[in-house]
Every structure is written in C-alpha cells, then in structure tokens.
Design brief:
The chain is mostly helical and 69 residues long. The protein is built from three helices and no strands. The chain has a domain of 27 residues.
Length: 69
C-alpha cells in the first residue's frame, strides 16, 4: 500500500479543520440561543448562570457574542 503524500495529507487535515471550525461556530450559536431562552424563562442571565454553575459574565458574554439580536 502506497503512503499518501504529505501535501495531500496536509490538504485533508486543513479541510477537516475548516469543517470542525464551522461546526464549532454553529454549536456556539445554538448554545447562545439556548442560554438566551433560559434567561427569558428564568428571568435573568444570573438565574441561568446559577442554575448551570457558570458565572453570570460567562453566560452574558456567550449570549452577546454569538447571537444577533
């Protein structure tokens, strides 16, 4: 069996990294939307943070950074 040339392997890995970056960005947007929904349901970002064990600033930053509204 012939080894794949390093340039081809590099291209494959670059393509995989691009796919993973796109999937990560989509997941961050969905996560932020869920946090925003949680804030609407519980009444505040602080309540969401307390419920899931994060700081309120981390929750607020995620919502602000990854939602458009």
């Amino acid at each position: 069996m012939e080894a794949i040339p390093w340039r081809d392997r590099l291209r494959q890995e670059d393509a995989l990294l691009e796919q993973l970056a796109a999937q990560t960005e989509a997941a961050l947007k969905r996560r932020a939307a869920a946090l925003k929904d949680g804030a609407a349901e519980l009444g505040s970002v602080y309540a969401v943070a307390q419920d899931i064990g994060l700081s309120w600033t981390a929750v607020a930053r995620a919502i602000k950074k990854h939602t458009t509204e």
